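can u do me a favor
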């Protein structure tokens, strides 16, 4: 059995990770760390776990593990690793953005591999440390990577809407129910932190001129929205493209033919198809020279904890889908 530890286990991603690992056939949870909740039972914070596990939150770490998940705020993972000695033999999967970009992917003697299985599976299998992709980044990249691989991406205009869990558990004016209900709002227009991460991956495959992340040339122009629902991400990307639509459909079918969780739909997709699953659904449609690519994921699963477990499965030579055959519910 793989012995797992979780740091920052009281938040949304930590809770989702606990739920997945509790039912994973090859994993046992050794500890869940939370300084502010130390001594409390996990089910006192994640109340849906009542009757599922009797473990209490720990204030201390143990090196008697095989893999450590860091479910911490952005910037906190690096600080944590600076302050805590983690054995070199322990694999680390970081869910923050601290190590996702090439220029920040090395920490001491640890090299973090960007954990998007659809393009980096071989590297993930051989990796000791993983930088788990961001939620918007996952949805948008998976929508566009086949086109990058075909070398046909130019300017990309993307809108995307995310649920309230994307903002984390901390309270803010825009996370209250009374603000979110029956309401949407754009935020971080053309300046979202995931644009650099997305552009990095697209350029990994893009043939021809590189895409830019700062608006100085061809690249991604992204406007995110806050939505009035709890979980999920839905994105729509518009691209000017000159190739026939039948060729586009073949490009997507070929690129994702062996993907464990990314599926190309023959009909329009909706958010309820993916919520509570590790799937990404993609649908394309073309009007004249304009191609629109829609994608949908659960931001807490394929956009965070589910993808982290998918990466863990690959790192330890398990079936990629182990513990992740989760079912959507429309009701």
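np, heres the sequence
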């Amino acid at each position: 059995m793989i012995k797992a530890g979780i740091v920052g286990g009281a938040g949304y991603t930590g809770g989702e990770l606990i739920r997945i690992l509790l039912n994973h056939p090859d994993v046992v949870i050794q500890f869940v760390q939370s300084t502010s909740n130390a001594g409390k039972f996990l089910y006192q914070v994640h109340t849906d776990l009542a009757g599922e596990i009797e473990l209490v939150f720990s204030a201390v770490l143990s090196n008697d593990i095989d893999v450590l998940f860091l479910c911490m705020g952005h910037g906190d993972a690096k600080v944590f690793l600076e302050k805590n000695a983690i054995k070199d033999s322990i694999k680390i999967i970081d869910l923050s953005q601290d190590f996702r970009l090439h220029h920040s992917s090395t920490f001491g003697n640890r090299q973090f591999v960007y954990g998007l299985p659809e393009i980096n599976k071989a590297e993930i299998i051989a990796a000791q440390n993983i930088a788990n992709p961001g939620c918007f980044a996952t949805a948008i990249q998976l929508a566009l990577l086949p086109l990058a691989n075909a070398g046909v991406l130019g300017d990309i205009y993307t809108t995307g809407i995310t649920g309230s869990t994307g903002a984390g558990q901390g309270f803010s004016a825009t996370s209250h129910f009374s603000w979110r209900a029956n309401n949407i709002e754009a935020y971080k227009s053309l300046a979202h932190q995931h644009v650099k991460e997305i552009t990095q991956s697209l350029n990994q495959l893009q043939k021809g001129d590189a895409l830019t992340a700062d608006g100085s040339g061809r690249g991604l122009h992204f406007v995110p929205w806050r939505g009035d629902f709890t979980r999920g991400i839905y994105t729509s990307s518009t691209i000017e493209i000159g190739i026939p639509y039948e060729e586009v459909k073949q490009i997507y079918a070929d690129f994702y033919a062996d993907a464990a969780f990314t599926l190309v739909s023959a009909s329009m997709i909706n958010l309820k198809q993916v919520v509570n699953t590790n799937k990404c659904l993609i649908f394309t449609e073309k009007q004249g020279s304009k191609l629109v690519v829609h994608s949908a994921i659960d931001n807490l699963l394929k956009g965070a904890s589910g993808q982290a477990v998918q990466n863990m499965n690959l790192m330890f030579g398990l079936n990629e889908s182990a513990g992740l055959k989760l079912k959507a519910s429309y009701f």
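The mean pLDDT is 94. hope that helps!!
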